[in-house]
Design a protein that fits this description.
405 residues, alpha/beta, Enolase-like, domain 1, TIM Barrel, 2 domains, ten-stranded mixed β-sheet, three-stranded antiparallel β-sheet, binds D-gluconic acid, binds magnesium ion, Mandelate_racemase_N_dom, Enolase-like_C_sf
Amino acid sequence: MSATIVAADVLVTSPGRNLVTLKITTSDGLVGWGDATLNGRELAVASYLRDHVCPILVGRDPAMVEDTWQYLYRGVYWRRGPVTMAAIGAVDLALWDIKGKVCGQPVYQLLGGRVRDRILSYTHATGWDVAALLDAVAAQRERGFRAVRVQTGVPGLESVYGVTKDGGAYEPAGRGVAPVEETWDTAAYLRYLPGALAEVRAAVGPELELLHDAHHRLTPNQAARLGKALEPVDLFWLEDVTPAENQDVLRRVREQTTVPLAIGEVFTSVWEFQQLITEQLIDFVRAAVSHVGGITPLRRIAALAEVWQVWLAPHGPSDVSPIALAAATHVGLATPNFAIQEYMGYPDRVHEVFRHAWTYADGHLHPGDAPGLGIEVDEALAARFPYEPAYLPVARRLDGTLTDW
Ligand code: GCO
Ligand code: MG
């Protein structure tokens, strides 16, 4: 007799930031863990799971990973969107975790085994001015990183995406019941950034990989101008130049510049990547393994991208939990067209609540060889940190109109 799912429970904890976790328990006593965190909308995913998904998981065969994905995606009629897909992603991760434990194998073995010894990772360095940014880059190089995302302040602006003024650790979600409002001026950013990044390149030398995130804020024309201006900096990638809801416009950017483009952390399905990949409008797919619906669809996206020489580079900020990071590293070790894994890091308490087999050393991540995803959640410790409302900021232009954050 095959095992059945006997319980599916949702844990919401805030050990430094809000994280939502799905726990699936089987009749033979195995437990699988999935990440269901959606920054600023955590409780919506928790409710989607608790109220609509957990009850129908009970009684199902945990071995049927693909069928359960299809059941939750096609079987619901209302499909896609970040809340739905983060919920499906949590189920998919938990079922892969269980399958690994049943087989006594780390998930990467079930995905075909390793194609590399370890996976390259990049982290963030931020500084309000170039001197502070160079200090931050030096500190990350000390930690072994060979690839660093660089974000700076902009003269004349009080706050800028991805940068803290006091040099402290960056966490975009501000605690409180309403989002913080930031002011944004694209013209000032475009005037300042190319010179600032040229200074960074001159200081760090040619070998360090530098990345930059424009966070959806430019028009196609501005993106093309910025891409051209940054060509001498030799970026590993320029991320999210436009909101990319209108994907056709990226052709104009591609025609104008050879800067490598990365897009996709807010996309939730293979279909949102289809045009970008098949028309080669981007170089790197930034899907988050949990937000895109799990390991099952991430593998499909990777396979489509491989055909078109597009590379996989999963999203890995502190707002996807160490469970999602585990899943991304398993995929990364086993996927030929995997390029790099973002590793922003976590507050210490997060590592205590989510004990993980994955390790960071010398600029690289490894998923470890524990069965499944290699995660143990300290539920008693998690329960000591209840949910606190926290939201990403919103951004307004100088004239007060709302713009993309
Ligand atoms: C990145 C991202 C994040 C997002 C965050 C929003 O490239 O890492 O842009 O830092 O801003 O995930 O919740
Ligand atoms: Mg990004």
